[in-house]
Amino acid sequence: MSDNRLSTGIAGLDEVLNGGCLPERTYLVRGGPGTGKTTLGMQFLNAGAIQGEAVLLITLAETVTQLQKTIARLGFDPQAITFLDLSPSSEFFAQVQTYDIFSPAEVEREPTARRIVEQVETLKPKRIFIDSMTQFRYLANDTFQFRKQVLSFLRFLVEQGATVLFTSENSQEAPDDDLQFMSDGVFNLDFTRNERTLCVSKLRGSSFQDGDHALRLTSTGMRVFPRLIPTEYNRELPIEIISSGIPELDELLHGGIERSTITIISGPSGVGKSTLALQFMKEAAGRGERSVIYTFEERKETLLRRAEGVNIAVGAMQARGTLSVVQIEPLCYAPDEFANLVRQEVEQQQVRVIAIDSVSGYRLSMRGADLTTHLHALCKYLQNMGVAVLLINEVESITGDFRVTEVGISYLADTIVFLRYLEIKGELRRVIGVLKKRLTDFEKTLREFKISRYGIKVGEPLTQLRGVLTGVPELLKDENIK
User: Fold this and answer.
1) For residue range 111-123, what is the model confidence (pLDDT) as tens digits?
2) Closest to 81 in 3D by CA, of 100, 58, 103, 61
3) Could you give the CA distance from residue 40 to residue 38 in angstroms, rounded to a whole number?
4) Residues 6+ apart with CB under 8 A from 456
5) What b-and-e string marks burial along 195-209, b requiring 16 or more CB atoms within 10 Å of the CB?
6) Are strands 185-192 and 195-203 parallel, antiparallel or unpaired?
7) Fold category of 11-227 in CATH
């Protein structure tokens, strides 16, 4: 038996299986109706057919005509797959077959087995998909006989050099625990709370990525998005300071933010959080680095228009490939699916700066899952890959009631930059400050923060104010505040 892995035809599933299926083994695909069992099997066969392998689909439920139409809709070639149709025909009902002396199982089992043996010995398929094994239960007189027959059947197929994928429809009336014991691998498909998942619970002879992985069924087949495990990704990179391009802001940060760190930019609505993130990306573009901002709330066109209006040339940056603005509809993406999008940018496009705008929008994609767990995994992965992460976090209070975040993620941050509104002489003004910085010291003062058509301007330290974080500061020397 060869140790070379067989691709399932689903890149994400191959990753979960650490390379694919081991050949000449048996794999059970289990799940309820509509979870994607047949689709997975078809992609498995198609992956072999593309490589010129003989592949066989044994159907005991759907007709060949139905399966061929489904395969064609997925964009695969039905002619590349050999079918063995063991599903009941319409004549079975019309003839009202009855068995007075022998049970139906005894009468039908032998010709069914003979047809399978003849087809397998003639074709010598490298891949076989059986949909579904549950139907074989009705060809056995009792549970013991069923287990013995299925085990013998699977061994026959493997000894013929085939890798076998078969489905079951687990239910209280017909549990499939016995099939799980007999198979070398078990893939569990689930569809609950409008979320599809895949979980591998068994894989003899190989390690695999455990846990639930997001799954999506599309017009071209199944896609699996492996759960992100940050420790599996790591790059050894030297500590590097990233300048904001604004001298006064760099003074606040003692040079800037560091590569491979997480920065939370916190503040109320409209205070300039996204603009500040784009300022760091503007400087990265000047160094020839690529950045991506994922916007969960604001329309892409609105964000681009605002950026151009404050002297951040996002159009030119996009044209050069140094910036990508990606609008995300959070209700359409599971957390693992979004993480997969980010991974593609990092691993294929060598992105160096990523902003998530905002944490509140990202939270919507959780669909009841734990925000901190998924955000932790994504941010730690980006850190390990040498990416500077900017998390844009909106707080509800406009002035006063100072909070960094309202979702308990401040522990993730290596740096926390906060923007606040102040009321000075009846006018609403902005200030910027640094609350935390793990790798270096930082300036403890607050500075005025302005945004105009010329860009961002950060003023001198506001040393003549006290009570700034209350939102209504006390002015000590009026002449210093203009």
Assistant:
1) 777 888 999 999 9
2) 58
3) 5
4) 246, 249, 272, 275, 276, 279, 310, 449, 450
5) bbbbbbeebeebeeb
6) antiparallel
7) Rossmann fold (3.40.50)
Residue type, 295: T
Q: Which amino acid is at 319?
A: A
Between helices 143-159 and 104-123, what is the axis angle to 10°?
Answer: 10
* 325 contacts 356 by C-beta, under 8 angstroms: no
Of 229, 232, 235, which is closest to residue 384 (Cα–Cα)? Answer: 235
342 sits in which H/E element: helix 335-349
CA distance 287 to 70: 50
Residue spans of alpha helices (H) in 51-103: 64-73, 90-95
State both tokens at 48.
């072999």
Q: What is the pLDDT of residues 17-73, one digit of tens each?
A: 999 999 999 999 999 889 999 999 999 999 999 999 999 999 988 899 999 999 999
**Distance from C-alpha of 240 to C-alpha of 123, rounded to nearest angstrom:** 60
Helices and strands, counts by H and E, the chain: 14, 22
**pLDDT for 93:** 43
Q: CATH homologous superfamily of domain 232-480?
A: P-loop containing nucleotide triphosphate hydrolases (3.40.50.300)
Per-domain residue ranges for the chain? 11-227, 232-480
| Two structure tokens written together for 13 | 């599933």
Is 11-227's fold the same as 232-480's?
yes
* pLDDT tens per residue across span 145-197: 888 888 999 999 999 999 999 999 877 777 889 999 999 999 999 998 778 99
Asked if residue 163 lies in contact with residue 127, where contact means CB atoms within 8 angstroms, the answer is yes
Which residues, in sequence order, are bridge partners of residue 450?
457
